[in-house]
Amino acid sequence: MKNNNPTGTVLYTIEQTIKEYRKISQKNITQIVSDITVDQCLLLIILDKNATYSQKEIAELIFKDNASITRIIELMVQKNYLIRKINESDRRKFNLEITEKGKKTIKLLTPIIYKNRQDALEGLSKNEIELLDKLLAKIISNCKK
């Protein structure tokens, strides 16, 4: 695609897509739970699926650096979504446990998350979604070379 505008490339369109999706997702999440962000919600869902993930693994899954994930976890502990407990086998590490408030929040927000995804992909066929996924995977691979 030729365009004289430096932001007129498919890569900027991908970035704009992500920003618009996060914006609508945050709006819909905030209507149900006012004190949680998209990233905090993702962290809860990831921990709910596998409570043994390390902080580093969680950071990689939600594309955050270690400092950012530490801040997110600290906020979630302060808001009573998570409890931080010392790891018995390695006292330098912490285990994260979802509180009752966190579990209720996951139940409230899970349908919203699925609806956000459904709305964002509306009008795309299964084949188009699969093709898009393959194309984006190629771009990711190219960038990691």
How many beta strands in the DSSP annotation? 2
Overall mean confidence score, pLDDT: 91
Poorly predicted spans: none
Structural class: mainly alpha
* Number of helices, where a helix is a run of at least 4 consecutive DSSP H or I residues: 6
Question: In percent, how much strand structure appears in the residues?
Answer: 5-15%
What is Rg? Answer: 18 Å
Structure write-up:
- Strands 1-2 form a two-stranded antiparallel ribbon.
- Helix 2 (38-49) crosses helix 5 (100-120).
- The relative contact order is 0.11.
- It is built from 6 helices and 2 strands, in the order H-H-H-H-E-E-H-H.
- It is mainly α and 145 residues long.
Features:
single chain, 145 residues, two-stranded antiparallel sheet, 6 helices, 7% strand
In short:
The mean pLDDT is 91. This protein has 145 residues and is mainly alpha-helical.
Write the layout of secondary structure elements.
Blueprint: H1 10-32, H2 38-49, H3 55-61, H4 66-78, E1 82-86, E2 94-98, H5 100-120, H6 126-144
Antiparallel strand pairs: 1-2
Helix pairs in contact: 1-5, 2-5, 3-4
